[in-house]
Design brief:
GO molecular function, one term: serine-type endopeptidase activity
Radius of gyration: 32 Å
Structural class: alpha/beta
Number of domains: 2
Organism: Tersicoccus phoenicis
Number of helices: 13
Order of helices and strands: HHHHHEEHEEEHEHEEEEEHHHHH
Distance between the termini: 99 Å
CATH topology of the largest domain: Rossmann fold
Number of strands: 11
CATH architecture of the largest domain: 3-Layer(aba) Sandwich
Largest sheet: 7 strands, parallel
Protein name: Peptidase S8
Shape: globular
CATH class of the largest domain: Alpha Beta
InterPro entries: Peptidase_S8/S53_dom (IPR000209), Peptidase_S8/S53_dom_sf (IPR036852), Peptidase_S8_Asp-AS (IPR023827), Peptidase_S8_Ser-AS (IPR023828), Peptidase_S8_subtilisin-like (IPR050131), Peptidase_S8_subtilisin-rel (IPR015500)
Family: Belongs to the peptidase S8 family.
Strand content: 5-15%
């Protein structure tokens, strides 16, 4: 699809709620937000259903609300890994590293919009709180309830020191790379979102990300050709990209790019009862796994919290799980990380993979403890292979990117040299011709002898 056509599709949703920015300005001011199911997309700005804001950070109110840690096995997974040593890039509206639950979590950053701070630390756009909420769900450390601004004490994770207040992310020892982008129209920096996305992906890869979190989507299943190289680059460098499926309540009925790109781990949403969420999820054949997307708690810039819903909130749970796995098995390839997550998911819906739940419901404990056979390839596909087949079919001048790496060593199989071509006996060449000529000569001699014999017999009569 031409860049202009894709840009048009993306712009329509960026001006609305398609990029999963579930906390609207009305919600930030304490006003109402839409909560009714909307089965068809709408070009107007909406948000995923959100509960009233919960402000302050006293006591363990936020910790008690983190039902997903217990019900989806993250607390059990922490007995094996907490994400230490793994960098996760959060491509979003910018993270406030000053939030008390994020002290020490952000280790680098940049701005790709031309508007924010050079290190990404200035939340920007129409929903500036979005990036901080994503970050706290992914790698929050909690904090001492005696001081809302005190950094967490040293230790091995939740339970070490007094961190009983605030949010603990699913990967509380992972490190965050803060990549701020202007998601939506009217960027003062003048840089189009179509250019920001590939720049953000490349920067993340070049600065050591092992996982990239993209809590954003679009109404278009296609993506511009300008994104090809960036996502293929991430694949080639063994970086796992995790993206949100989208929300029906935000006008997204079907999964859109970047969650449709082969190799990307797409996250669908679950309601509080563990079924597919109507408001806070979309559907599509590219969904890989489903995770909680309703009644999640995220941290706000400057401190404070809000309960929110959407696959924006579900996505960092899976990115954090990928960080736990990559910390536990540093040599495991991105494709095998994805395979471990989807193959340990609890099947729901139609048997096997389906467009509602993907491969099933996330089970973090199983993902960290189950015996999973090595994957021959990423079960979610390869963008390099897709480019080779689809882009080059239309334009042979396009050079296909290298395939993704494999951490497993295959046994070398010797390839025999091809023999030099040799004309086989009786191959229709000279020999059969000589045989024909020879037989013809013999027949001629016999015929001549017979004729002479007949002539002699006639004379005798």
């Amino acid at each position: 699809m031409a860049r202009a056509a894709v840009a048009g599709a993306l712009t329509a949703v960026l001006a609305g709620a398609g990029w999963l920015l579930p906390v609207s300005p009305a919600a930030a001011a304490g006003g109402p937000v839409p909560a009714e199911p909307r089965p068809t997309p709408s070009p107007t700005r909406t948000s995923a259903p959100a509960a009233p804001a919960a402000t302050g950070s006293a006591g363990d109110e936020q910790r008690a609300a983190e039902y997903w840690l217990r019900e989806y096995g993250f607390d059990e997974a922490w007995k094996v890994s907490r994400g230490a040593g793994v960098k996760v890039a959060v491509i979003d509206t910018g993270i406030d590293p000053g939030h008390p639950d994020l002290a020490g979590a952000v280790v680098g950053g940049t701005d790709v919009s031309g508007t924010g701070a050079s290190n990404g630390a200035e939340p920007i756009g129409f929903e500036p709180e979005h990036g901080t909420m994503v970050a706290t769900l992914l790698a929050g450390r909690g904090h001492d309830p005696a001081s809302s601004s005190a950094p967490p004490s040293r230790g091995s994770g939740p339970g070490s020191g007094d961190r009983s207040a605030g949010i603990v992310g699913v990967a509380p020892q992972a490190q965050l790379l803060n990549v701020s982008a202007w998601v939506g129209d009217g960027n003062p920096g003048g840089r189009d979102i179509m250019d920001q996305i590939p720049a953000a992906v490349r920067w993340s890869v070049d600065h050591g990300a092992r996982v990239i979190n993209m809590s954003l989507t679009s109404t278009s299943t296609s993506w511009p050709r300008s994104w090809d190289d960036a996502f293929a680059y991430a694949e080639q460098k063994d970086v796992l990209v995790v993206a949100a499926a989208g929300n029906r309540a935000g006008g997204i009925g079907q999964v859109g790019a970047p969650a449709t790109i082969p190799g990307v781990l797409t996250v669908g949403g679950l309601d509080r009862a563990g079924g597919a969420s109507w408001d806070a999820s979309a559907q599509g054949i590219s969904i890989g796994v489903s995770a909680p997307s309703e009644d999640l708690v995220g941290g706000l810039p400057g401190g404070g919290y809000r309960t929110w819903s959407g696959t924006s909130a579900a996505t960092p749970l899976i990115s954090g799980l990928a960080a736990l796995i990559r910390s536990r098995w540093p040599e495991m390839s991105a494709g095998e990380v994805a395979n471990r997550i989807v193959s340990t998911a609890r099947d729901k819906g139609a048997p096997g993979r389906d467009p509602i739940y993907g491969f099933g419901i996330v089970d973090a404990a199983r993902a960290l403890t189950a015996a999973v056979p090595p994957a021959a390839s990423n079960p979610l596909g390869s963008v390099a292979e897709w480019i080779r087949i689809h882009r080059r079919a239309n334009d042979p001048s396009i050079t296909a990117p290298a395939p993704p790496p494999s951490r497993r060593t295959a046994q070398a199989v010797p390839v025999p040299a091809a023999p030099a071509p040799a004309r086989p006996d009786f191959d229709g060449g000279v020999v059969p011709g000589l045989i024909v000529v020879g037989f013809g000569t013999v027949l001629a001699v016999i015929a001549a002898a017979a004729a002479m014999h007949l002539s002699a017999l006639r004379r005798r009569r």
